[in-house]
Amino acid sequence: RSCSFTGFSTVQSRKLAKSLSRSSVRSRMSLKSPKAYNSLQKGAVIWDPKPLQVKKIFEALKKGLNEYLEAHQAELDYLSGRHKDTKRNSRLAFYYDLDKQIRFVERYIRKLEFHISKVEELYEAYCIQCRLRDGATNMKHAFSLSPSTKASRESLVELYKNFQECTEDMCFIEGALEVHLGEFHLKMKGLVGFARLCPGDQYEVFVRLGRQKWRLKGKIETDDSQTWDEEEKIFIPNLHEKFEIKVTELRGLATILVGVVTCDSINFFTTKPQAIIVDITELGTIKLQLEVLW
Questions:
Q1: pLDDT tens digit sequence for 231-287
Q2: Is 294 exposed, middle or buried (0-12, 13-18, 19+ CB in 10 A)?
Q3: CA-based nearest residue to 286, from 237, 231, 238, 249
Q4: Is residue 236 domain-shared with residue 285, that is, in the same domain?
Q5: Which residue has the higher pLDDT, 107 or 41?
Q6: Where is the FAM65 N-terminal domain (predicted)?
Q7: CA nearest 292: which of 241, 233, 242, 212?
Q8: Number of folded domains that form the chain
Q9: CATH no. for residue 216?
Q10: Per the confidence metrics, is the pTM higher than 0.90?
């Protein structure tokens, strides 16, 4: 699924293209157009790459994309089988409608395959930069342990420059990878609290993912049902941030904090809607139930 951001500058794209062309392996990436990654959030570049986190997200993303690919390939096989039967003995209009469905699924499969190839390409470039950065770090450490000479000082300056360039490249590639993460559609399913939830109680739920926020209020009705002023919200996945969920109870002009929890999004990259139940209190006496669709 596609997603949109705002404001990745031409200068940043050129930097990425220039840095990726410094080695023969990196130059295989097609970054000719400065518009390739023009969807990053303004100010979203983080100058502290997190390779382990990026690896986890990449593996989860690739697995989820392959699930979508397998599901659509199965659908294509099913439609193709019907198409052959229909061609022999069926109405012409139904045959053409089936043919249109097959072409639509085929186009979607090609888009998914291209999406997967771009993700793999970006991650390959990221790993190369990570190894170069680690190499520069090790060499800096080795030079710092040797006697100081003019040549060693010049080498240290050059190594520091290489380290900084690799760090910048990793950050820009992280931003480019975020463009391919899709969307999370969150649905509010309500609070679960057994005896803790009473008719007339009012709660506020605040969900944050980086700069993205969702604030909604709900009330426990006399028949124990719940009404919420908003039921669905779209979030753009983030490589570095986790979901932060805060629940407060509203009592007149006062508010009482029920609990704050964080939730990792790695398990959300899947084709099926996921029911998420989060313990808001330490003892689990109040839980929040959400549904997440990627």
A1: 999 999 999 999 999 999 999 888 999 999 999 999 999 999 999 899 998 888 899
A2: buried
A3: 249
A4: yes
A5: 107
A6: 1-294
A7: 233
A8: 2
A9: 2.60.40.150
A10: no
